[in-house]
Amino acid sequence: MRPLPRFAEVGRRRPVDLVVAGSTLDEVVAPYAAATGPGSLELSSGTDRLVARYDGDAVWLEVTTGGRTTRHRSRRSARPRGPVGEVGLALTGTHLTALTRDAGEWVARARVDLEDRIDTHDETWLGGLRSDAAVAGRFGQLGLRDVRLVSGVPDGRVVLSATSAGPGFFDTAHTSLWELTPATLGLTHLSDVFFRRPDRPGAFGDHATHVLRDTREDGTGEWLVATSTWADFDRRRPTVGVTLARTSADLLSGTHLLDTEPLPLPVDGLRSVGVWDPHLARTDDGWLVGFVSATKFFRFHPALAGGPSLDALTLRGAATGLVEAEGTTLLRLDDEWQVLASDKRAQSYPVFDLALRQTGTVAAPYLSNIPWPTLVPEGDSWLLVAFDGTPYGGRVCGYGTHGDVVFLRPEVGTTV
Known about the structure:
Tachylectin-2, Chain A, Jelly Rolls, 2 domains, 6-stranded mixed beta sheet, about 0% helix, about 50% strand
């Protein structure tokens, strides 16, 4: 089997959009909406009012539910340091955030969790969302992470799935699809994908997703979307699982709300308390599914399952010696399947066989956070697409806004 080359960074991209260009509130199917304008802004549904106030000096939030209005202002971040070009209001999951555009960048000025006030996942409530803002529509992203190659895309297109970061932790993010132009490293936003859960009502922005086009011999097929249930992650009662959606809709455009079912992943003997980061591959013998298993939050390692169908999987291996390793990725190299991952402790991208025995590493710079190693074939060469932990939006956002999308190509003179 030919070795992978040594990679070097060749470019970065950071698409930031508070409102998806050209979108409207009528397209909002999950609690990911935003508005922008020169002054105070409002999102409302029924008698509930979500307002970002700006009086020329400071920015704060006002929330009205059940006839009660509360005011939420940051002591340290409410006052912009310079001229304000625009004000923004974003609903991401249960979180409401007021932002200002300062020197071309969005900075969060106030944020409040609406979990105890409004069921923002309720589809009827979402269907009533309105705004008087000049620009209002689907929330876009502050950064991208969890980048994966979408498998089986027709017509030679290169499409990536990603986690569109919101202004906060896991529960402000959602899944999006992007077309990559390898020659220019250009990224074009194609669609946003949201999910219904099999065990509770509502619409959720689950993410850390893999999308696969499963094409039959007659040319027909469907999309399989495997994702991790991060959208309502609660650090007080942590739990994460994997769900699977099947659809014939065109996932390469628009916005989608998909019904899901559990994807049962075998964790026999692993003392698993949660699984995430699914990656699917159809083989001559059936299916391979890479994933991450956690023995506690947050201590986790790569694992691999296989079987004749996705509902008849058995555990093939697990790298239980690793403690902060995720992004389990399947790669076919010279007709052999390999398993790649990202190991934060070792600051490397280990390569495994199908028994999860390490056989080497991908020779590439290890970025901040836990970047996944996504390899895109380019003729006889490769483009490595990763991401890092670069934050965005200021101190109010905290952890979760990462990151830059980072592109790497083989170093000149290395073997491909």
